[in-house]
Design brief:
Helix content: 10-25%
Structural class: mainly beta
Radius of gyration: 24 Å
Distance between the termini: 63 Å
Number of domains: 2
């Protein structure tokens, strides 16, 4: 008698259909739009082809943000989608009177003339205000800035006369760049600010009522030029590649400089980014006795006992996105239309004047570097009219907001 339930269960298993394929496509689309995070989306898409069709990866393709007019009341911004070469625009009123000083996890960091910071998700229009700025930021910078009649002023480099600090001055006076540990609405996000001409950093917890900025001495002897978030910690990096590991997640923030650690020889850093828990460096190397250069990719486990840089010749299916305007880059799995094992660099036209394939090009171009051999090719994407400025930054769209997915990219 005891064997009958077993035989019945076996028959039920044999008759059981694959529920991942029998549900209607519309239901899978509904489920995909309620995924709480990008990690869940990745797992969802890995199950089978039908599930991938319900959540197209094209919704998360990186875009290049082009220059905008901060005085425009409607905040019209143009984006360039590299995968299909198309431009599209969005109205982002939150950009009025602000300048971009960071791009992390699909969120932009914005600063205004009062040196107040706001975080904006350009694809959901969600915003988060960061704590107000005070004069402590001016005191830790080599720049002389004071508050006068409710406005920030600083002496002119030419004659020393005090002049009002305008919007275009903010990145050179206060916040050069802001980096996030996670999406701004994740509930545990920390923002760290790279202060102009300072060896200190400032950090705050995002979305905490009554929060404030905390200053942290990194222990480095030179000014910090870049901040990268890696393995739940922030890495403060100087112009010559010295690094301090900043742990600000606990009750007592700490900073520990990495000892006896130098950049590879003859390199000029372009951008830093974290890939799979390791710090990566995109840099140029000038050939001895020549005016030409090649672009290379290096990586390092800065948390190792004796960290050392090693050249990367195979980044697998990864595509790395970097720009001149912001020091922190992005990395992600290759999608259709993007070259894998490659670096896309958006920088000044003057950066490629020594390459025959670029120096006569009148357009703004993207440099595409083959990681395997360091060779570059150039992709013209926008006409350079009357000295028009370069692109602002790359954005890896993060369409999650309040636990729901909003697919709003054109």
């Amino acid at each position: 008698m005891a064997a009958q339930p077993c035989r019945r269960s076996q028959r039920l298993l044999e008759q059981k259909q694959d529920w991942s394929t029998i549900l209607p496509h519309e239901l899978w689309e509904l489920i995909s739009k309620r995924l709480p995070s990008g990690h869940d989306a990745s797992n969802f898409r890995s199950m089978c082809r039908l599930w991938r069709d319900a959540l197209p990866f094209t919704e998360f393709e990186p875009v290049l943000m082009l220059p905008f007019d901060p005085e425009s009341p409607d905040g019209v911004v143009t984006f360039y989608r590299l995968t299909d070469g198309e431009f599209f625009t969005k109205d982002l009123p939150a950009l009025h009177g602000k300048e971009v000083c960071g791009s992390s996890h699909g969120w932009l960091a914005l600063v205004d003339e009062a040196a107040c910071l706001t975080l904006l998700n350009p694809f959901t229009n969600a915003t988060v205000d960061l704590p107000p700025t005070d004069e402590r930021f001016a005191l830790v910078s080599m720049r002389t800035v004071i508050m006068l009649d409710g406005r920030w002023v600083h002496p002119s480099p030419s004659d020393g006369v005090l002049r009002e600090t305008k919007l275009g001055d903010m990145r050179e006076v206060f916040f050069h760049e802001v980096v996030l540990s996670s999406p701004a609405d994740s509930g545990n996000c920390i923002a760290m600010a790279l202060l102009t001409e300072s060896s200190e950093v400032a950090f705050c917890r995002v979305g905490v009522a009554g929060g404030s900025w905390t200053l942290l001495n990194t222990g480095l002897k030179q000014d910090i030029s870049c901040i990268v978030h890696c393995r739940s910690r922030f890495l403060a990096i100087t112009h010559d590649g010295q690094i301090s590991i900043c742990n600000v997640g606990g009750a007592t923030p700490t900073a520990r400089p990495v000892q006896s650690f130098d950049l590879p020889k003859q390199v000029n850093p372009l951008s830093y980014l974290q890939v799979n828990g390791e710090l990566h460096l995109v840099c140029t190397v000038v050939q001895p006795g020549s005016t030409t250069y090649s672009t290379r990719l290096y990586r390092c486990n800065v948390f190792a006992r004796k960290p050392v840089w090693s050249r990367v010749r195979n980044a697998g299916d990864l595509t790395l996105l970097t720009s001149h305007n912001l020091a922190v880059g992005h990395a992600g799995g290759s999608v259709s239309g993007l070259k894998k094992n490659s670096v896309y660099y958006s920088g000044h036209l003057s950066g490629c004047i020594h390459h025959d394939g670029c120096k006569h090009n009148p357009n703004h171009v993207l440099e595409i570097i083959n990681v395997a051999n360091g060779k570059s090719e150039w992709l013209p994407y926008r006409q350079n009219t009357q000295g028009s400025p370069e692109a602002i930054c790359w954005i890896m769209p993060n369409p999650w907001t309040q636990g729901l997915l909003r697919l709003v990219i054109p």
